[in-house]
Please model this.
Amino acid sequence: MPDDSANFETIVFLNGASAEPAPSAGAVKAFLAAHPQIEPDLCVIAVRKPSDADFLRSLLPQTPTRHFVATDFPQLETLLEIVAAKYRPTLAIFPPGLFGAEMAARSAARWRGTAVIGAASFERGEKISAQKSVYSQNLQAVFELTQAPFCLALAKEWLARREPPKVVPPLAAPESAASSAEEAFFSAPSENPPRLLAFELRERKKTSDLAEAKRLLIAGLGLEDKEGVALLSETAAALGCPWGVSRPVAMNAWADLDKLVGVSGAMTSPDWCLTVGVSGAAALLAGVESSRRLASVNTDPEAPIVARSDLAIVGEAKETLKELLLLLRQKNRPKS
Amino acid sequence: MRVYVFYKIVPELSHLTESDWRTGTDLRPEERYVRRTINPGDESALEMALRLRDQNAPNATELWAMTIGGDEAERPANSLRALGFERAVIIESDLDLRFRPELTAAVLARQVQDAQDALVVAGSRSADGENSLTPWYLAEILGWPVISEVLSVAVSAPGSNVLEVESLSDDGLLWQKVALPVVLAVGDAPSTFLRTPTLKDRLTRGQGKPEKIRLEPELASGLPPLTRLTALERPCRRREGRVVDQGDAAEKAEILLETLVDWGL
Model:
């Protein structure tokens, strides 16, 4: 294992043990491309087995890496113990998502530093500052950061700004520990952390089709009830696109949480997006504003979604969806 | 088992008009005149605590609700007492704590640090500050484990100090069995709207002045801010496209379909 007693200025953390490691790593890469002054000198990757790190390692090929091998969750506790004791960088960058947010917050607390969750940008000038959304995505704030280490968990917007996924040929994968001077592996202990008596991953996260969708149909509370979601699903099938929902619809349990679009869910960037019964809460808009074209259906002409739309239809969500479905069925009917 | 729920009173942001969002030198939108409400994630945390009490053996759960604030917290505190929280404490402070999660966590940690086998439940982020830090800072100060994005919590058996917790991780839906003490951070948890007290509940339990304590000034003066807000702006992301408000639903759907076809459908 390499000697890590030297100080690392900037450490990047990636989570290769999650259900979808590539998008969050792509977001980190997009952030680094937009911040050329940040030069990571160490990359720490959490993985289930060393070969899982191939793709992630190729994102930062010049940066020395350390792999943390965790056979299952919740090993984050151990990663945190090791990292907080072993390193003390000036800047630590974590990917968007739950892993990144928790690691950034708890590392900052242990290092007596400053955490920023949802960082949109970072600037190291006369003063150190970071930009992020506040007031439920309604306002953009700039904060001066006063106390290093600075731990940034990136904003989910960086997921929408990453390059389209490419097939990367796997690197020669070291299957055993510490195969080169530039790589090292930590392993989580086999025992659970104290006070954790048992755990089980009950349902592996479904791969969402929303983030990569080219066309998208999204609905809000204007759907009125759970039956409205059935109509939404039918219309989406006729349009040939996936569908998603706003936070209030998911909180009412009319649709599963994996259908959630916005800062708490999928960040999308389709060619076009149609929203129905969505008033335009900033948290949802953040998830669709990278759409090349945006159409909306809403009863209120003053709703925020109207000014954000390329085409705004003032009307009832269900009624419009029913009419649209009729037209789509006529259009899709095979000609005799 | 003592359960502490930390909640925050926030402005109802959906009631702010476009002009209210313009910020002046005070770096604050015009939020003084809008309705105040319990922060959404905290509301879920409060409801989860009530469900835990309902499921646990009678008198085995002692519920405490705590918030930092002023007069605006009195009404919600009384509602929580009406719902069965034994204590609803307001830690009085006029400090601007919107972007001070480290201070908020330190104040709250002071309240629970001596508790044995306690459970802390709190929302992950507040609607205004959106720091997403307080529960994790709190857990680190206390040296307790923390579970993020909690969806539900139950005791493993009535009267037990072992909890079964369902939560979301980047991997999927996780189930854990944990011994107290622990901090639970609640994010988007479906179907956890806070129940409403009945009139009878209000008359029997939700009357009088809520309990108040002062935020210890030396705690605030001893913790310089980790972040300083230097700018606060409303991003301008308008498209200003075509608005169709004439015609019946069929005509509108036709325009919509034509447009989608034009966009490549």
Q: What stands out?
A: Chain B touches chain A through 83 residues (CB under 8 Å). The longest strand of chain B covers residues 62-69. The mean pLDDT of chain B is 94.
